[in-house]
Amino acid sequence: MGLDMYLYAEKYMGNNIDQTGSYAEIKNLAGLKDLPTPDFSNVIVKSMVGYWRKANAIHGWIVEKCGKGVDECQVIYLGSDDLINLRNDCIKALANPDREYQIENPKVLYQLCDYLNSLETELNPATYENPLPPVEGFFFGGNDLTDYYYHKLEYTVDLITSLLESDQELSFSYQASW
């Protein structure tokens, strides 16, 4: 029991796939071959592309910024701008001057260094405000800024960077379970 979080990518395949036989193949693979096929057939492929467990700061950010503050395990749709903003806030949270966690992923480290180099002044521990504070909830995990917390931020930066580098036209949705 606890906070499980899922990020999905969807791709609309359109209606011209029927000409290539792909529609029937996809229905067959999904075990849907006996369902009726309308004249205007199309397929939407949905795949889980990200998973977090008890990353309550990420959950809180998505609920507040994209889910209008409503946390009922509902599907929350995320646009590319939302993903960019989440990634940027993760990078800012990783820039915490009191952080002892060592960034392991070179792509994430590069983005963090790029962000720090863009600042006009050094970060001051006394005035630093974390854009991704942990949030409390039913079995949401700890509220301390531990290695686990920073590891989840690093994972999120890497995940979103990979998704945004894709040349696919994708739609994204998030859903939590607790």
Please characterize this protein's 3D structure.
- This protein is of the alpha+beta class and 178 residues long.
- It has one domain (4-177).
- The chain contains five helices and four strands; from the N terminus they run E-H-E-H-E-H-H-H-E.
- The protein has helices at residues 22-29, 56-66, 80-94, 106-118, 147-165; strands at residues 4-14, 43-53, 76-78, 171-177.
- It has a four-stranded antiparallel sheet with strand order 2-1-4-3.
- Helix 3 runs antiparallel to helix 5.
- It is elongated, with a radius of gyration of 20 Å.
Topology of this protein?
Blueprint: E1 4-14, H1 22-29, E2 43-53, H2 56-66, E3 76-78, H3 80-94, H4 106-118, H5 147-165, E4 171-177
Antiparallel strand pairs: 1-2, 1-4, 3-4
Strand line-up across the major sheet: 2-1-4-3
The number of helical segments is 5
Helix percent reads 25-40%
Q: Between the first and last Cα atoms, what is the distance in angstroms? A: 7 Å
Tag the structure with descriptive keywords.
elongated; alpha+beta; four-stranded antiparallel beta sheet; 37% helix
Q: Could you give a short description of this structure?
A:
With 178 residues, the protein is an alpha+beta fold.
